[in-house]
Design brief:
One of its GO terms (molecular function) is ATP hydrolysis activity. Its main location: membrane. It comes from Zea mays. This is Multidrug resistance protein associated1. It is a multi-pass membrane protein. The chain folds into three domains: 155 residues, no CATH class; 282 residues, ABC transporter type 1, transmembrane domain (ABC transporter transmembrane region fold, Up-down Bundle); 77 residues, 3-Layer(aba) Sandwich (Rossmann fold), CATH 3.40.50.300. It has 23 helices and four strands. The chain is 67% helix and 4% strand. It is mainly alpha-helical. Strands 1-4-2-3 form a four-stranded mixed beta sheet, covered by helices on one side.
Length: 699
């Protein structure tokens, strides 16, 4: 099939291009005579490689041209990616391309002594790496056209070539079996790029004059650019090169607010708070319809649903980091074993070096992206919670305001919500640390056999000793937060009544009250820090005790030779164990703090709100009545056990000025609160037509 296509389009140029490569790579056929017909499988494979190399060179040339005129980007360069597949699809396909490149390189290393076989496989591996880059690096329209053409030709040629091989009863090697499906994915990406589609990212524009909330100063028509993060390709995001423009500006001068680029809509507090509010309202309404109360972990579940993709991506980075760290002792064992060999295979040594470089590269990149993604997701969670708490405070009922003082609400925003912004990194550390510990223990069993078993006994003992410390830490942390809220509540009340305190000369009395509350808060803080110190001491001691027990048991049982490779492997494994052992107490402490913060914010978000149906808002009519209350009964308590206002009938016409007068405790403020809808209405009706009530409340 492919031979027929090539034979129909073959000419002298093809013979010139393939002459030297076919004579060297394909060798001699037909009894010593070189056959340069396109029916030869080797010639067909060489032709495909040449097409890939030519398109690769063309793609590199378009990138070089884009770099030359980078400062003069045209409008079509930014609109050229409007029809591109989503970032997640490109990331998956590029990962598959890298896997195909690794398969070709591994095949080349296996045949490193056969230059005629190794060189083409290395070239194909380089081509697949370039294909992975072409999925993300398309700065101009010519680069995009060349990349799409490359994907289509590669997919069609590979499909025709492999189909002809399979039709002839032959089998494909492993590298070709991996690369063929990936080439079909590239064809799908090419088709997706040709389909018209709007841009999925919306960026804030500082120069947009349609907003009525802001107006530029006189002569300040400067536009603030959007961050390069949202336009960076795969390698730009991996290397954080999107920060280079900002770093160049910071190197030349001190940064001001106008130099900081804007963020996309997905990262704004408005978007994240709206997303969380919708999910929280839907969750609460679903629980109400099912007649089941809102669970104690509802806030954590809603946050997980809202930011599931970001949390999973961060967990993937953490998992890659954990794997790259866990394989370090095995690589060390391989190097020591290789150095002790009398006959050393060059391919094995190169493979070990390549694995070491790959492991360190993955560790470095995954760790940095883990931290960055954790901070970015934490910023979204923090801004969403802060905005939601503020909006909830505006809708809080009188009973809810009595349960939560102003100081406590400020504490929810400044302490609890801010603390939850750091929860993502600690959350993933909570499951990667035990998993890393499991991998380390498995490595010890592999190196020491049964000699590693006695070393698990002190490890388990140290683990069980940490359980009571964790329970005590949780109790102390909860009591510390309660004491802190009590101090903030008292401080807020004292500051609000400072005029009376100064008038009556009660400063010393209230100062002693604040100091006593602070002493109680400090007591629980001291207890918490002491228990954390005890836990840290135990976990710092555990690696030393475990290693001593393991070496002793191995020497007595003789389960493994205590040679250089075993000793270095065990030492490296214990070093790998030291990080999770050291971090586990901190992880438990932080998880306890996050649980307390989640419970406090969840309790606040579940408080009663002002009922909108207590006051009926009606449009203006010709009746002339602006405010009407008919047989209204109101109570500060929703149960109605004690009525504050009974059988109220009120009518205020348009243009009238009404003053509510009366002695202290007669219900003046209650009446105005009832007109505002801030007192629960038990019966009757309240209606108004655009009423605004303002009053001065003095003590």
């Amino acid at each position: 099939m492919l031979a027929a296509v090539m034979a129909d389009s073959g000419d002298a140029a093809m013979a010139v291009v393939l002459g030297w490569s076919s004579s060297w790579i394909c060798g001699e056929e037909d009894g010593g005579r070189l056959t340069l017909t396109v029916a030869s499988k080797c010639v067909q494979r060489t032709l495909i490689d040449c097409v890939n190399v030519v398109l690769f060179i063309a793609y590199v040339c378009t990138l070089a041209a884009a770099c030359v005129r980078r400062r003069q980007r045209s409008a079509d360069a930014s609109s050229g990616r409007s029809g591109a597949p989503s970032r997640w699809v490109l990331l998956v396909v590029s990962t598959c391309c890298v896997a195909a490149a690794v398969a070709y390189c591994v095949t080349a290393l296996q045949d490193a002594y056969d230059i005629k076989t190794a060189v083409p496989y290395f070239v194909r591996g380089l081509v697949w790496i370039a294909l992975a880059a072409s999925l993300h690096a398309q700065p101009t329209r010519p680069a995009r056209v060349v990349a799409v053409l490359w994907w289509v030709l590669l997919s069609l040629l590979a499909t025709a070539y492999n189909s002809e091989i399979l039709a002839g009863g032959h089998s494909l090697d492993l590298a070709e079996m991996i690369a063929w499906p990936v080439s079909l994915l590239l064809l799908l990406c090419a088709l997706g790029s040709l389909l018209p589609r709007g841009d999925g990212h919306h960026y804030r524009d500082a120069s947009n004059g349609s907003s009525g909330l802001s107006e530029p100063l006189i002569g300040n028509d400067r536009t603030v650019p959007t961050s390069e993060l949202y336009r960076a390709g795969l390698f730009g995001q991996l290397a954080f090169s999107w920060l280079n423009p900002l770093l160049r500006v910071g190197r030349s001068k001190a940064l001001d607010l106008g130099d900081i680029p804007l963020i996309a809509t997905d990262d704004t507090a408005h978007h994240t708070s709206q997303q969380f509010t919708e999910a929280w309202s839907r969750h609460v309404s679903d629980k109400a319809r099912s007649r089941r109360g809102v669970g104690s972990n509802s806030l954590a579940l809603v946050l997980g649903k809202c930011f599931l993709s970001e949390i999973l991506l961060t967990g993937f980075y953490a998992f890659l980091r954990m794997l790259s760290i866990a394989v370090a002792p095995l690589l060390l064992f391989g190097f020591v074993w290789y150095s002790n060999q009398e006959e050393r295979d060059l391919r094995v040594g190169l493979s070990l070096v390549g694995c070491l470089l790959l492991a360190k590269l993955v560790e470095s990149l995954s760790q940095r992206h883990w931290f960055f993604s954790s901070r970015r997701t934490g910023m979204r969670i923090r801004s969403a919670l802060m905005a939601v708490i503020f909006q909830k405070q505006l809708r809080l009922s009188i009973q809810g305001r009595n349960n939560h003082s102003t100081g406590e609400i400020v504490n929810y925003i400044a302490v609890d919500a801010y603390r939850l912004g750091d929860a993502i990194s600690w959350l993933h550390m909570g499951w990667t640390s035990p998993l890393q510990l499991v991998f380390a223990v498995a490595t010890l069993f592999w190196a020491l056999k049964l000699g590693a078993l006695p070393g698990l006994v002190p490890l388990v003992i140290f683990g069980f000793l940490n359980v009571p410390f964790a329970k005590m830490l949780q109790g102390y942390q909860a009591k510390f937060m309660v004491a802190q809220d009590e101090r903030l509540r008292s401080t807020s009340e004292i500051l609000n009544s400072m005029k009376i305190i100064k008038l009556q000369s009660w400063e010393d009395k209230f100062r002693s009250t604040i100091e006593s509350l602070r002493d109680g808060e400090f007591k629980w803080l001291r207890q918490t820090q002491m228990k954390k110190a005890y836990g840290a001491v135990m976990y710092w001691m555990s690696p030393t005790v475990v290693s001593a027990v393991m070496y002793t048991a191995t020497a007595i049982m003789g389960s493994a030779p205590l040679n250089a490779s075993t000793l270095f492997t065990v030492l490296a494994t214990l070093r790998v164990m030291s990080e999770p052992v050291r971090m586990l107490p901190e992880v438990l402490t932080m998880m306890i703090q996050y649980k307390v913060a989640l419970d406090r914010i969840e309790k606040f978000l579940l408080e009663d709100e002002i009922r909108e149906d207590d006051v009926k808002r009606v449009p203006s009519d010709d009746s002339g009545v602006r405010v009407r209350v008919q047989a209204g009964n109101f109570s500060w308590k929703a149960s109605g056990a004690d009525l504050s206002l009974r059988n109220v009938n009120l009518r205020v016409n348009r243009g009238e000025k009404v003053a509510v007068c009366g002695p202290v405790g007669s219900g003046k403020s209650s009446l105005l609160y009832a007109l505002l809808g801030e007192i629960p209405r038990l019966s009757g009706s309240v209606s108004d037509q655009g009423l605004n009530v303002f009053f001065l409340f003095t003590k």
